[in-house]
Design brief:
Strand 2 (82-85) and strand 3 (88-90) form a beta hairpin. Strands 6, 7, 8, 10 and 12 form a five-stranded antiparallel beta sheet that branches. Strands 11-9-13-14 form a four-stranded antiparallel beta sheet, with no helix packed on it. Helix 4 packs antiparallel against helix 6 (158-183). It contains 17 helices and 14 strands. It is 40% helix and 17% strand. The longest helix has 26 residues, at 158-183. It has 519 residues and is α+β, with helices and mostly antiparallel strands.
Amino acid sequence: MLDNTQIERLEAEAVNSAKTRQPLYAPRRKIFPKQASGSFRRFKWLVMAITLGIYYLTPWLRWDRGAFAPDQAVLLDLVNRRFYFFFIEIWPQEFYYVAGLLVMAGIGLFQITSTVGRAWCGYTCPQTVWVDLFLVVERAIEGDRNARMKLDAGPWTARKLVLRVSKHAIWLVIGAATGGAWIFYFADAPTLLGELFTGTAAPVAYITVAVLTATTYTFGGLMREQVCTYMCPWPRIQAAMLDESSLTVTYNDWRGEPRSRHAKKAQAAGKAIGDCVDCNACVAVCPMGIDIRDGQQLECITCALCIDACDGVMDKLGKERGLISYATLSDYNANMMLATAGGSSAVNPSLVRTADGLFSDSVAHFHIRKIFRPRTYVYMAMWGLIGLGLLYSLMTRDRLEINVLHDRNPQFVTLSDGSIRNGYTVKLLNMIPEPRTIIVTIGGLPGAEMSIVGVDLPADRSFAIQVEPDRLKMLKVFVRLPADAIHGEAQTFTLQVEDKASFESNEYTATFNTPEIAR
């Protein structure tokens, strides 16, 4: 067990501390975050591995859809206007599924933020993930915090030039891989990869890779925390999502203040001493360069690396972990009232402890059930209902559709035998990747018969039409009604389509115009 004075004090100053707030327009102060270790850092490694793995590997997954559809599991086929996601195929007119998923994502973000703060920003945001990846490269080449600071402040030498060129070269490779992975979602990945290296890919592919390489390199390598502070709107929105029961990374000054590096001398003088030894470990590991002891700040992404750093110091001192922890505002306020004797005095950590040095039973501690409150259940219900609605719609949607457009000019033609003929444009939509034989039949309109342009068969009430897999087939259909079947009033009928193999069917109600209706 170490003494307070044996804990190394890091020379780390917050870039935007409560004492010296920076002006809105100020040059960037470089941040050199120290490598952290602990449970939250390990969790961030896991999340980074999973998210990067999903992003880079997904385009290479295969899914057999038969001979008439692509076998890439996830594909945004812009040429044919299709979106494939494993066994799901989305057509342009079904974009409401995508809209529904975006609504679910928004509600999910509100849910996460209202319960555990900016967990999205701290763990799964692409900016956070790629900055973490770039920092891994930076530390591997230039060393940890002190080495990087020394290198940055030192003169340009051959060694510094080699290290910097190596680092930025690897960053550019990562950026190129990021842009390359993105375009693989829009075309067959193996084919496009070969075209990229042989110079036969479409110009838009090279342009996209170049743009995403530049943005990844700039945002993840050069701008880093500035993207979160100045470009992202979420830090300014999140305050509306939080309440007194939301978990946020909190410095518990009710047990940490007053800070002191000379606890024994202060205690001998009869002074109240908190657990914080002012070592600045929390500031040194912060990728945003802030001091969590200044309270909640717009810049904080709640990555919890400061918790790992502080817990490590507490372990060395033989004190309880949690000086910096995830806590709710209601618990914090309750403990502050206890540590200040109801607000009548300055913070006195002895008020939250018993005579033997343990925390008092009156100290509020977090429990998982505290985040389950009416607001949480409302978000969960909204999210679940939308998801169930989308799932039900997906499972019951028609894969065979018909659309009919009546000719506008002329609306009808009177034939030499007195019969009336109407023209229609009929669209048959086969929404599965297999060829189908579709039976098109007139329903109602007794005595009527139809003929189809391009089909060399006599007029009839029913035709078998071959439709290509995953395609729209357009037909020009003429419906003729004998003179003795014309009633001089609006007459409607249905055009019915059916696939005998799958028993799918659909129909469209159309209007048959006569001279009386036309007038």
